## 1
Amino acid sequence: MDAVVFPGQGSQKPGMGAPWVGTQSWDAVSLVSEVVGREVGALLVDADAATLQATRNAQVAAFALGLVILDACRAAGLTWSATAGHSLGEYTALVAAGAVGAEDAAHLVGQRAEAMQAATEAVPGTMAAVLGLDAEAVQASCDAASGQAWIANDNAPGQIVVAGTHDGVAAAAAAAKDRGAKVMPLAVGGAFHTPLMASAQARVDAALDAAPFAARSLPVVANVDAQAHAVGPDWRALLSAQLCHPVRWREGVVALQAMGVTRVVELGPGGVLSAMVKRIAPEVERLSIATPEEAAASLQP
C-alpha cells in the first residue's frame, strides 16, 4: 500500500522547478500563478535563496512544485491509498487525496502565505532543529526561554524543531546544547506552528470557511492530531489548528504504517521526509521524486 507525502516550507531551493519547464505538468504553475496573482514560475526557476526564504514566496513556490510533480506521477500511472504532508505540504496532500481541488487549494495557500508573511513581520521569529534529544528534554529547553520558544515540529526520533522569537530560540538552543544536543538554524522566515502566528488566524480561517471541501476523500493523516481523516469538511478545523500548533510528523508516519502503508513516496525536492521516515519506520520502503525522470521511473521495479 502506497502513500504519497509532500514536504513543506524549508524544502525549497533555487532552481528547483527548472527540470520541469516545458513539460505538460508545468501547466500547474500557470494555474497557481493565475490564482495568487503572481508569476510563480520565476520563483521556481530564477529566484535566489534569500528570495525563496520569504514566507510569501516559499509557500506558493513549494505548493506549485508539489502540484507539478503530483500531475506527472498521476500521468505515469502512480496510484496511492493515503496521503500526508508536512506543514504547508498538507495542502498538496489534500489535493492528492481529492479532498479539495487544485485551484481552491492554491487560493488557500495564497491567503495563508500572505497572512503568515504579515505575522512574521509583526513579530519576527525563527526556527531551529534540535538533534539528539527526546521531546521531554526539548520541552525543558524551551521552558528555559521563558515562554518565547515552543516545540513546533516533532519530526523523527532525536529530531525536533523549536520556534519562537530570535532571543527565545537562542535561549532554548543554548539550554539544549547544555543537554548534549546539536542545534541547526533553519532557513525559514518565521516562528511557524507557534502562538506567534496568531495574527494570521483570522485571514486563514476566512479562506478556509469559504473553501469547498469534498464530502469524502482518500485518508489524509493530519499534522495536528496524527490521525487519518477522510471527511473533507473536517479539514477546516484541522488546517486552522495547524497554524499555531505543532506538526506531529513522527506520530503521523506511525499512523500511516498502522493503516497498512508499506511504501512512502515523497513528491518534492530534497528527500527530507524520506529521511525522516527511515528514522521513524525503517522497514517502510521509501521513494523520492523530484524530477521528470524520477516521475517517469516511479512504476519501475
## 2
Amino acid sequence: MHPILESRQRLVFYLTAWLPIGVILTVILERGLSSWLEAILVAVPLTVVYAFMCLSAWYVCLAVPMRNPSLLRLLVTLFVASALSSLAWFTLGEVWVLGVEPWLELPGLSERYTAQFMPMFANGVMLYLLAAAAHYLLIILAESRTTEKRALELQVLAREAELKALRAQIDPHFLFNSLNSISALTIVDPQGARSMCILLADFLRTSLVLGARQQIPLADELRLVENFLNIEKIRYGQRLSVVRNVDPGCNTCLIPPLLIQPLVENAIRHGIAPLVEGGTLRMDLHRTGAAMEIILENPVDATRVNTQHGAGVGLENVRSRLARLFANQSAVTISSDNDTFRVRLRFPCVESGESA
C-alpha cells in the first residue's frame, strides 16, 4: 500500500501541501477563462484529482530506483509517466468542464478551457516530476530506516551471541573447580564429599534454570552465591568466613546470571585458599540513586597478589559481560593494598520492566 495512504495524518498533510498549488492553478486559469468563478470551478476539483493521480509516482519510482545505473532510462521513464499523467489530467478536466458548462449555464467554457492546454500540460508535467522527487525522498528515508533497523538487530544478535559464549565459559570453569574439591575431600572427609555433591547438584539445577535468562534479580544471584559458599565451607571449614552487607534496595536490580559467583570463587581460590589461617570474605552491595555498586574484599598473600590473584576466566568474564550489557555505564575496578584485594563493580540498577 502507498505509504501516504497508510496513515490519515499523512494523507491530510499531503493534501494540505496541495493547497498553495490549487491557488496558483486558479490564478493561471483566471487569465484564460472569463471570471474567477470559472477558474475556481475548474482549478479546485482538478487540483484534488491530480493530487491523487501524482501518488502513482510512487510505483514509478519503485520500478526505476535512483540507484539504477541507467540515467537515460530514469529520465525517459519519468518524462513519459509525467506526460501521460498530465494528458490524462487535462482530459478529465475536459470531461468536468463539459458537465459543468450546461449545468451552470456557462457558454463557451469548454472552448476557453481547451485553449489552456499548453499551460495545463506544462504544469501537469512539472507537478508530477515534483511528486516523483518527493517519492524518491520517501524511498530513501524508508531504506535508511530499514538499514538502521537491520544494523541494530544484527548488533543485538551479536551482543546476545557474545554474552551466551561468555556465560558458557563460566559453567565448565566452576564445575571443574568443584569436582576438584570433591575429589580432594573423598580421601580426607568422605561425608563432606557426599554433602558437597548434594549441594553441587542443587546449585547446578538452580543455575541451569536462572542461567537460561538474560538477567535475574540480585536476590536470586545472592541465593546462588550462598549455595556456592555452603559448598566451599565444607572444604575449608573454619578457614573461611563471610561478612555480608547487602542494601535491601539492591535486591530487585537485574544482573546477568552468575555475575557475582565467579568473583567469590576467585576471592576464595586465589586469596583465602593459599593462606594457612584462611580469611574473611567481605561482600558490600549498595545502591546509590540509579547506580548499583558491588565490592568484594578478601585477604591475600602480599607476595602473590600481583602474580596469582585474578588469573582465571571469572574476572575477565564479569568485565566483558558488564561492558556488553551496559557499555560505558559500567566499571570494574581492581585494587590492592598490603594484604587486601578488592574488586569493585558499578553499573546501572535496571529493574523489571526497564531496559538496559
## 3
Amino acid sequence: MRLLVVKTSSLGDILNTLPALSDAGRERPGLEIHWAVEEAFAAVPAWHPAVARVIPVGLRRWRRKPRAREILASIRRVREQRYDLIIDAQGLAKSALLTLAARGPVCGFDFTSAREGIVSLLYGRRATASWELHAIDRQRRLFAQALGYPLPQTAPDFGLEAPARPEKPRLLLLHGATWETKRWPEAYWIDLARHALDAGIEPLLRWHDAGERAEAERIAAAAPGTQVLAAPDLEALRRVIAGASVVAANDSGPAHLAAALGIPSVTLYGATRPEHNGTVGPGQVHLAAEFPCSPCRNRICTYKGPSAAVPACYGSLPPARVWREVKRLISDKGLAFPGNS
C-alpha cells in the first residue's frame, strides 16, 4: 500500500506527527509512505525510517513571490504516482489543495476536528479527533481511522535514533522562539547559564539566524564559559541537541525536537500552555507562567502594568525555579556535579 502524508509545517507539528507514522508502520507492514512538506522542514520526515520519499514544496515562499515554474514542478512531483490513500494531516486550505493535486482517495479531519473546518468537504473520508486531546493523540487517531486499525495504547514513538550520552553534563539553552511572548527574558538566560557554570556544567547556546546569534553572543559574553554553536539548518540543530545532557527551552520547535530525541528538558510556557501541544517524551518538565492574563495566546505582549520581566508573565518563572528543575533532571540522569552548586 502506498500512502501520501500531507503535513507541510511547522517543526513542532511535523514532529508531533511522527508517532502516528510509527503506529502505521507497525500496524500495516509493507506500507510505503511518502510525505509532502515545506522545503525548510524536509529533513524531518526523512529522519523517520518508515518514510520512503519526501516531496518538498515551497508554499511559504510562493506566498511572498509566486513562481509558476516551481509550482508546476511540485504539482508534477505530487502527481507522479497514484496513492492508495492520501492523509491530510494539516487540515488547512493549503494542505487540502495539495491533496487535490495528488492522485488518490483522501482522508482528513472532519468539520469539527480540522483547523479550517470547511476543507473537510474536500475529503472523501473523514476522521474525528477532539481538540481536547494533545496534538500527538489527534494525529494518532487520524491515522488509525484512515488506515483502519485499532488506536494503539502504547507511548508515542517518534522513530528517531537516540543520541549517544555526552561524556560530561551539558545544558543546552534553547533561547529562540517565533513569538515574542514565548521568549523567556535574556537576563534570565544569563542567570541560568551562570548557575550552570557555578555547578561545573557546560552551558551551550545555538543560533539559527542573525537575531538569535546576536542574543546568544550577548548571553555568552555575560556568562563567560558558555559555548555558542551555529545551527543554521535542521541537521545541525539535531546534532547540537543530541550533544546535550539536559535542555532548557522556550515553547518552540527545537524544544519538541529535544523531546523527540529523548533529551530531558525544562520547557517554559508563558503565552501558551502545554496541555494540547506541549513536549512529550521521557524527562519532560513543563513550567507554566502564573499571571492574570496568561495564557494570552498572543504573539505580542499587550500587558501595560508593572512587572518584573518582559513579557510580564515570565516574572513568575524566575531563573532560580528553572535551575532547580534542571538540577533535578541532571541528578535523575545520574550525572555528577563537578561544582558545588
